[in-house]
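User: I'll paste a sequence; please echo it back and then give the predicted structure.

Assistant: Echoing your sequence first, then the prediction.
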Amino acid sequence: MTLNLGEFPFLNCMPIYYALKRHIIKGAKLRFTIGPPSKLNQLLKEGKTDVSLISSIACLDLAEDCYILPDLSISSYGAVKSVMFFSHLPYHRLDGAPVYFTSKSATSIALLKLIIKRCFNVSPIYLKGELKNKKNMEIAGGLAIGDDALCLGAKGIYPYQLDLGKAWYEMTNLPFVFGVFAIRKEILDKSFEITKQIWQSLLFSKNWGLNHLEELANMCVNKINWKPEDYIDYWSHLNYDLKKTHLDSLCLFFRHLKKMCEIKSIPRLMIAHLKSEHEFFEQPILC
């Protein structure tokens, strides 16, 4: 049985996926579907992928259809470097100013709105658009994610650069969870063994990647104008676990969004625990 696994096309995912894609880790038979978070969220919702990395905010929309897989995430305790708000203006002067938000990730958009409001008490005019690698004085700034954010940060085009992972950590003293892995419930109901094999393959691949960062960095030297040690530093500042602290942070984020009327409600979210030999059990995330 070959399953479809969704993958973000970003450097921050490389430590999790590399060993799987190069068949260094043997395990479940997988077909990879690559796309930005917004696309993969929708594909998993439609059942066009079976298991995928998704934006953390997509958990709300997928709660009835999917389980969250344990011990896997894209998170940061502080600076993430690849989810950035760039601005020509000081942040406290952004009230009523036009700023772009990327359509690639709903989580980052919601986090930006939360931080801008809570930390600087301003309300920009949010417009859908992408920042380019050159100045655009018609807008005050914008949100960039993934490799786009890394490239813009390296170029130093914008004098004000707000790292949203760092801003969240300074506000809450908690890691921010940008993405989690989710699996459609019918896949788990159909075959516990295959689901467990996929989960273990992802864990083994993650552990292999984190133990071979230098090897990964040497393969990436042409992607961004970085030295190998810059890639290692970048990955070392990320966190790929999903522990109680991560779940507490996720729930706090959702509660903030509900208070801001960005979301209507917080559904019952479930993690599928797979450490048993023959069956899984559901663990609710209490928000």
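The chain has two domains: 2-77+176-285, 83-172. The longest strand covers residues 66-76.
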